[in-house]
Write a structure and sequence with these properties.
This protein is an alpha/beta fold. The chain has two helices and six strands.
Length: 110
C-alpha cells in the first residue's frame, strides 16, 4: 500500500489544521523522525473512511507552531516529539517542558 503525503511548509501548518478541522477531520497521530540537519514530521488525520497525511520538513534550528489550539489532544504527541527528538514546538497548550518521559538521556533520538 502506498501512502500519499501532502507536503506543507512549517509556516503554514496552522492554516492547514484549521482547514482540516473545518472539513471534519480528526487527528489520528503525529510523529517525528530525524533526517540530515533536521526532522521530518508526519501528521495524520481521518474523516469517516478517509485518511490524509501531511509531511513537514523542519530544519534542526527551526521551530513549528503547536496545533493544540485546534486539536487539543495533540499535546501528547507534541510533548513526545519535543522530549524524545528535540523538536522545538511553540505554544503547546499543555507543555510538560521536557518532562513527559523520564529517560536516561535527554532527547535520546536527537
Amino acid at each position: 500500500m502506498n501512502t500519499e503525503y501532502k507536503v506543507v511548509e512549517a509556516g503554514h501548518v496552522l492554516e492547514e489544521m484549521q482547514q482540516l478541522r473545518a472539513d471534519g477531520y480528526h487527528l489520528i497521530q503525529q510523529c517525528a523522525t530525524r533526517i540530515d540537519h533536521g526532522y521530518e514530521l508526519i501528521y495524520s488525520f481521518g474523516r469517516e473512511l478517509e485518511a490524509q497525511n501531511l509531511k513537514i520538513t523542519l530544519d534542526e534550528d527551526s521551530s513549528i507552531s503547536s496545533i493544540t489550539s485546534i486539536f487539543p489532544c495533540a499535546f501528547v504527541y507534541e510533548n513526545e516529539m519535543h522530549d524524545l527528538f528535540g523538536v522545538d514546538i511553540k505554544n503547546i497548550v499543555l507543555d510538560y517542558h521536557g518532562n513527559l518521559y523520564r529517560t536516561a538521556i535527554k532527547t535520546p533520538f536527537k
